[in-house]
Amino acid sequence: MVKKYLLYLIAIFLILTGCNTPTKNTAAIKQLKELLDEKEYFRLETKFKLYSAGIGDENRLYFKAFIDNAFNRNAECIKDVDSLLKIGTFKLPDSVKLDLSRLQSDSYFKTYQYAKAAESDSSLLKQYSRTISKENIDDIKNDLVMRNALKKVPLQQTTIKGSTSIKWKKDKIGLIEIPVKAQSQTFDAIFDTRANISSITQTYARKLGLHILNASYNEASGITGMVFKTGIGIADSLRIGNIIVRNAVFQVMPDSILYIAPIKFQLNIIIGFPIIDQLQEVDIFKDGRMVIPSSPAKSDLHNFALDGLDPVIALKSGNDTLSFHFDSGASSSDLYAAYFERYKTNIIKTGYKKTVHYGGAGGSLKKQVYILPKLHLTLGNKTVIIDSISVLTKKIYPKEKFYGNLGQDMMRKFNEIVFNFKYMYVKGVD
Questions:
Q1: What is the pLDDT of residues 67-126, one digit of tens each?
Q2: Number of Cα atoms under 13 Å in the Cβ half of residue 254
């Protein structure tokens, strides 16, 4: 079915672009589409630069939109989709229009244009509800609940007047906590690059004086996949060092959702992607300092991407370059089912089975995994070894594509880790 659809899409592209070298262009488009389907964003960008001149304007805009979104160029993504959908002679299948419109909605949300994101999602449901899957409809409806609630909320704005240095510390379970000021009080908040939205308990939402909106929607925990209900609230102003964040969006959860029962530990505040992204660059030092420079630095590295709101890093592993989630809110790393399937023979030969307890928002569960004695990963010019890493044998989510989730055991291999959301790289410094 996928191959049939792909050939159909390619045929449309070729007819409309008036291609004079169909074999070459067919092969190029097919390869780009396969890389996109597998979320191989880094290889996709490389191949796109190679092929873009010869695949026609429509095809170029199509792939460019996804690449711009993945590398945090959201204003460009929005323009790409607008340009493509306005080409009256370019007839796209509804499923492709749906993907493009959802992509554009994601970029609207990342740029805090909530009303436009809501309008886009609402339009999708009206136009394509009869032709798209129930799973997609449910996802769009769930997103729309949040975005409708935020329609009248002003843009989040972050003011960085100069470089900021703050102290971070580890909490009981080894997570990074930073001081956040609100309502003339200072609170400890977990710094979590993989938290799609900042989160807070109902108790602390009251302490921080959040404005609670009338909304309830589904959210899922990253490692367990558990789904739970959450609300939404707005903090008028937060201060991180001398940085001020206005109109910050938080998921507001019952305290029990953020309580990790097996270790009797309560999470209260989690600073996630929408706030971290506007900081543009965050330098985390092993000695307990966190520095947010006034201006993000450029680098030759280009190893960082976004899958929706999830950060993705490309690292060398042996002779392969693999894409992982990078998660400052995880004390340890895990490898996903894709890694198990790719290296199954070696994992079964060198690893051993173990039942591991996983805890996160919404609850906890046990999973049987393989423990791989060592994992070699190369970031920049340095190869590091992560010892005794868990390998899951089954997917957490059906559409899971990446090879694992890297946590603080990876970060600790460097004296400094730089997350740069402006130029999209992660750098490790000795």
A1: 999 999 999 999 999 998 887 555 778 788 888 999 999 999 999 999 999 999 999 888
A2: 7
Q: How far is CA 286 from CA 276, 290, 414, in A?
A: 19, 9, 7
pLDDT at residue 271, rounded to an integer: 97
Asked, colleague to colleague, whether 157-287 and 304-429 share their fold, the answer is yes
- State how far the Cα of 150 lies from the Cα of 152, in Å rounded to an integer: 6
Give me the residue spans of the domains in the chain: 2-149, 157-287, 304-429
Residue with tokens 């423990």: 371
The CATH number for 2-149, chosen from 3.40.50, 1.25.40, 2.60.120, 2.40.128, is: 1.25.40
Distances (CA, A) of 190 to 149, 263, 284: 25, 17, 13
DSSP code per residue over 140-162: HHHHHHHHHHTTTSPPPEEE--S
d(C-alpha 369, C-alpha 299), whole Å: 37
- Beta-carbon contacts of 48 under 8 Å, excluding residues fewer than 6 positions away, are 32, 63, 64, 67
> Which pLDDT band, with edges at 50, 70 and 90, does 22 fall under?
very low
Distance CA 50, CA 34 (A): 16
The encoded tokens of residue 235 equal 């903090």
Q: Among the listed ranges 143-147, 397-401, 413-417, which one has the minimum average pLDDT value?
A: 397-401
The domain defined by 157-287 folds into: Cathepsin D, subunit A; domain 1 (2.40.70)
Question: Which candidate, 412, 406, 413, 159, places its Cα nearest to that of 280?
Answer: 159
3-state secondary structure of 354: strand
Q: Which percentage of the chain shows pLDDT scores above 70? A: 90
Tokens of 114: 């909530």
Residue 420 three-state SS: strand
The DSSP-derived string for 100-153 is HHHHHHHHHHHTT-HHHHHHHHHHHHHHHTTTS-HHHHHHHHHHHHHHHHTTTS
What is the model's pLDDT at position 174? 86
Contact 149, 214 (CB under 8 A): yes
* Of the candidates 401, 247, 407, 309, the residue with the CA atom closest to the CA atom of residue 72: 309
27-49 pLDDT, tens digit per residue, is 999 999 999 999 999 999 999 99
pTM of the model: 0.89
Which superfamily does 304-429 belong to?
A: Acid Proteases (2.40.70.10)
Count of CB atoms within 10 A of residue 399's CB?
Answer: 7
